[in-house]
Design brief:
alpha+beta, cell wall biogenesis/degradation, Uridine Diphospho-n-acetylenolpyruvylglucosamine Reductase, domain 3, Uridine Diphospho-n-acetylenolpyruvylglucosamine Reductase, domain 2, five-stranded antiparallel β-sheet, EC 1.3.1.98, four-stranded mixed β-sheet, 3 domains, flavoprotein, 20 strands
Length: about 350
């Protein structure tokens, strides 16, 4: 095992913060991972698991063993008349996985094109976009228990998926390392085009016959028009979750803010776009030194360079306080703060 010391995590987080890891190792197989976890030398050392680093805010040097998961491989493990079951290593780039599925005619994840990160991180927060979430196509995942090194399989029910949530962000947080994820995808696409600007974008692209490739391309075009490329401008995508509020609260706010959007999620709850709240509170395009709020999407906090994670964290808390004062709504981060 090649364990390095005092390694910069600059290449491993999309915010682009140059913090150091006390120890660092890249893992390419389950056997390597289990050998590491079973090693007496490292059993008591704190550990931090990193995939694509696209949903993490590093606020200081990491006094731990950073385990970078690079387990690759995509394979079909079962096939039926209408479905195909596909297993992917946790270290596979998520968009690369989506493109693999699109190219092979496996439907179900095309609306999730261009979401940054890895396959292993996807079920942790039940990633979603344009009417689709991981839970819709999820079969099961495999994960190694950090404490014992034992490999365990988790069903969808055991993952307890919620809105940008799973059991791995709650009761099992920091207890398991996901090594592979298996999806049940369709051979007969059921296109979802009624969300966001998809239909309009398809028309602008002059798509005559809808296909997985066309839908994926439309989603990519929309995301590229609204969201900054982390390679050009440091960010972790949506920083906050869209809050859900009681009907009564929404009705009262609607009287004060007639253009307030809302989407029922249950008989008594309404989901409100966090980006709209942040923009209405005056933060869109705000900049303070090396950090700020993106000019085209208020939900995205950005790092212009030479800044520190604490500055993004401070900005996020200012935004939380401002939105709470204006709307009486507390925004919760989607990004994991370390």
């Amino acid at each position: 095992m090649l364990i390095q010391e005092n390694i910069s995590l600059l290449p491993y987080n999309t915010f682009g913060f140059d913090v150091k890891a006390r120890y660092f190792i890249s893992i390419f197989s389950i056997d390597e991972l289990r050998a590491l976890l079973n090693s007496p030398e490292w059993s008591s050392v704190p550990k931090l698991i990193l995939g694509g680093g696209s949903n993490v805010l590093l606020t200081a040097d990491v006094d731990a063993l950073v385990i970078h998961i690079e387990i690759k491989g995509i394979e079909v493990v079962a096939e039926e008349s209408g479905h195909v079951v596909v297993r992917s290593g946790a270290g596979v780039n998520w968009h690369a996985f989506v493109m693999h599925c699109v190219e092979n005619g496996y439907a179900g994840v095309e609306n999730l094109s261009l979401i940054p990160g890895t396959v292993g991180a996807a079920p942790m927060q039940n990633i979603g976009a344009y009417g689709v979430e991981i839970k819709d196509v999820f079969e099961h995942l495999e994960a190694v228990e950090i404490k014992t090194g034992q490999l365990r399989k988790f069903s969808a029910e055991e993952c307890a998926f919620g809105y940008r949530e799973s059991v791995f962000k709650r009761s099992l947080k920091d207890q398991f390392i996901i090594t592979a994820v298996t999806f049940r995808l369709s051979k007969k696409p059921e296109f979802r085009v009624s969300y966001g600007d998809i239909q309009q974008t398809l028309e602008e692209m002059q798509v005559k016959e809808l296909s997985l490739k066309a839908l994926s391309a439309a989603v990519c075009k929309i995301r590229q028009s609204k969201l900054p490329d982390p390679k050009e401008l440091g960010n972790a995508g949506s920083f906050f979750k869209n809050p859900e509020i009681p009907n009564e609260h929404f009705t009262a706010l609607k009287e004060r803010f007639p253009t307030l959007p809302g989407y029922p999620t249950s008989p008594n709850q309404i989901k409100v776009p966090a980006g709209w709240l942040i923009e209405q509170a005056g933060w869109k395009g705000f900049r303070e030194g090396p950090v700020g709020v993106h000019a085209r999407q208020a939900l995205v906090l950005v790092h212009y360079g030479d800044g520190h994670g604490e500055q993004i964290l401070a900005l996020s808390r200012q935004i939380q306080a401002s939105v709470c004062d204006t709307f009486g709504i507390l925004l919760n981060p989607e990004v994991n703060v370390i």
